[in-house]
Amino acid sequence: MRSRFKFVDLENQLYFMTFTVVANIPVFTSSGYMDIIIENFKFYRDNENLKIFYYVIMDNHIHLVGSHHDNIARIIQSLKKYTAKEILKLLETDSRQWILYLLKYFKKKYKKESTYQFWQEGSHPEMIFNLKILNQKANYIHQNPVKRGLVEEEQDWLYSSARNIHGLSNIFEVDQIEF
Q1: What architecture is domain 15-165?
Q2: What whole-number percentage of the chain has pLDDT above 90?
């Protein structure tokens, strides 16, 4: 079944995106796995001009609001491919066999070129057209760890842009939206 969510190559178009681990497997449960995501955010921002304005890394998915001047679909595909490769290496190093087993078990049968499937297909991009939708998506992103009962205040979740918004020390400096 084809997704109704598509990237449209509009210059600097804002998108709300979600990257989900196949079968919702909780992989991001220790900092090493989340740090791979953060390091790749930094790389793609510095080397490919990906703009990331809001984000949260949860145990089995990532939400972000971002944009690119040209081809965001290509950038996101590349980011997901590289992070999957790096996370799989770390899972093997950490001997997290049960996760590797599930990533192999839930791999789509037509994906013959790999042993595992890390990310679910697609990024479910939703265009953001106005400030009201942007604020709604930012609030949704920042409230994710609160709603899951992981923290009491959104700014307490280390792997979230809520820390940036509240002026706290953070692990990733988000981009500023210019209106």
Answers
A1: 2-Layer Sandwich (3.30)
A2: 82
